Amino acid sequence: MQTALQQLVRKGWVWQGRDQQQSPAQEAHCLPSGSARLDQLLGGGWAPGSLIEWQCQTWFSTELRLLTSLLRAVKQQPVFWLNPPARPSALGLASMALADNQHLVIETNDSHQAQWAFEHILQSSRQGLVLGWFAESSAEAVRRWHKSLTQSSALAVVLQPHQPLVEARAFSHRLRLWSDDSGHWFDIVKRRNGWPVSQLAL
Amino acid sequence: MKRQHWLYLYLPQLALDHGMRVQPEWYTQPLAYIDESRQKILQRNAVAKAAGVQVGMAVATARALIPDITMVNYQQQAEQRIRTQLMAWLYRWIDPMYGTNDSDILVDIDSLFSLYHDVPSLVALLKKQCKKAGINVLVGYGYSPLVAKLLAFNGIELTTKDECRAALQDLTIAQTDLPEAVKKRLNGSGIKTLAQFMQLPGAEIGRRFTLEVLRYHRALHGEEALTQAVFQPAQQFDEKVELLAEVQQWQGLLFPLKRLLMQLSEFLYLRQQSSRQVLVNVIYREQTHPAIVVKAARPIWRYQDWLTLLNLQVMEKTLPAPALGIRLRCHQLEALSSESPELVANSQQQGDGLHDVVGRLQARLGDSAVWSPAATDDPRPEIAEYRAQPLAQRFAQLRRKRPLWLLPQAQAIDIEQWQFIQGPERLITGWWDAQSVAREYWQAKDPQHRRAWIYFEQGQWFLQGWFA
């Protein structure tokens, strides 16, 4: 049985300052981001029970590289799609070999209801991937989502447009994604075990 | 075979007991059930009794004693419905039983001696269960239904045949439930006790009184033919609660609704059934509104689950008018599966938890707000793709690469700004119906370097989806 401290370490909530790398045991639980460089910076990948923010320049672009990797990593687990910008296609999912997951799409025009739904899913899901597309998210909402994840091993990703000002939020990791003629790029605005990093190729 | 052991469950204030159980505030305020046509008190609670209100007292007298007494019109039909609920509750311990015209319960216990060793243990069990249900009861035992009834009516609770015979002999004619006119005639003839009445020869009674009195006489001697049907538990749940005062907000309805849902829970558990749907009707003075349909994503039976779903559905609603009562119905029952989460040790298993999450999301956001992607084998993407019931996803056999995202409707695009990557894939199909297509599909990049699925049809380029 794991001690409370071991559980916190496994979830990545304890910053082990001696080294930015996570232990092999911790890394084994992490989900790959799809980029070796990003995995290294995150300390092995996305830790289960994390609340992540991806700020996107535009939909269907850079974030899909990260999303594809995550979807492939959460095999046979539920995937929640809250207010996606288009319809997830059954044929598309099958062609990506993602038919083993249980996909649930939740749609609501009311932003208040969407925040409630996201929180409710985080409270109730023990595992899997929870994706939520929002125009913006308040500090209060993010704090509540973060709290809802405390007992869960699910991974939650909030996808938003680029935010003009980067205000403090209770996300574990915050990434800013964009693309130009030379490729796809990301900034790490916030991460658990290190300083922000700018302009890395994805 | 002649049945020789009967129990009569006399429920002197069933409507009142039930009302107080559903609305506990009734315990602390003076309350009486009245016969509106005769303006008499029929049942009253302890507060009213302490202030001097008696059963049989005129309504005006009771009002003079307690001006702010709450009076509820007694309805026998409603009381008999409550009796049926009680019988359904007792059905797990006793059978056969019968509902009487007085809203009481008669139990044939001849066949129960193999389960319960003697009458006292059976009586103790029934009293305990009635107490649990919040119902006051007097249990009369007798060698015939009428004997058990007379003893129960007079508060004589005995458990052996000899004691019963002796007690019966001691009863006066006034203590029986014979019609008043018959009682007078018997008194006029010098017959004051039941012992005297029982000693009269049947032939003489037949000659001097009506057939009804003769039947009564025979019943006292154990010769009684029951006309009621044996109780069978209902197969559908349909219960109603009338409120003491008008309720303006949903919050005020939640407590009585919880009681109703607890009854439903009991109802389902006793039958080892569950359901995916209940109907809640709020009763208003004049308006009628459609029932609120509470749906669950999987069959459930626990009241806590129903209450959660109902709360999610009504928490942001307002009542259109003051509510007078609530009705709860559950008609579509399913057998409680051995794989139901309540029956396995770990109810937090992922699969079942997921159904619960779906149910709660649907209750709050609406049925159509939650779905799973699914597709048929039709080659036309707009027709193949559909929104399936949550967790009922279906993936058709795949022949070609398809995009992860589909736009709700294809958008016309200016192809000048796009860069072709792969194609074409010709799709000429649908000749058998009115939605035939003749398209050339391409994978292409837009100016933001996003990989898209586009097609050319009838002189125009369209964007249909995006690849991951």
Automatic annotation (TrEMBL), chain A:
Keywords: Cell cycle, Cell division
Alphabetical list of InterPro entries matching this protein: P-loop_NTPase
A biological process term (GO) from this entry: cell division
Protein name: SulA-like SOS-response cell division inhibitor
Classification of source organism: Bacteria, Pseudomonadati, Pseudomonadota, Gammaproteobacteria, Alteromonadales
UniProtKB/TrEMBL annotation, chain B:
DNA damage is among the record's keywords: yes
Alphabetical keyword list: DNA damage
InterPro entries hit by this protein: DNA/RNA_pol_sf, Rev_trsase/Diguanyl_cyclase, SulA_CellDiv_inhibitor, UmuC
Biological processes annotated in GO: DNA repair
Domain UmuC: 23-151
The keyword DNA damage is assigned to this record: yes
Any single Pfam family the record assigns to this protein: IMS
Family to which the UniProt record says this protein belongs: Belongs to the DNA polymerase type-Y family.
Protein name per its UniProtKB record: UmuC domain-containing protein
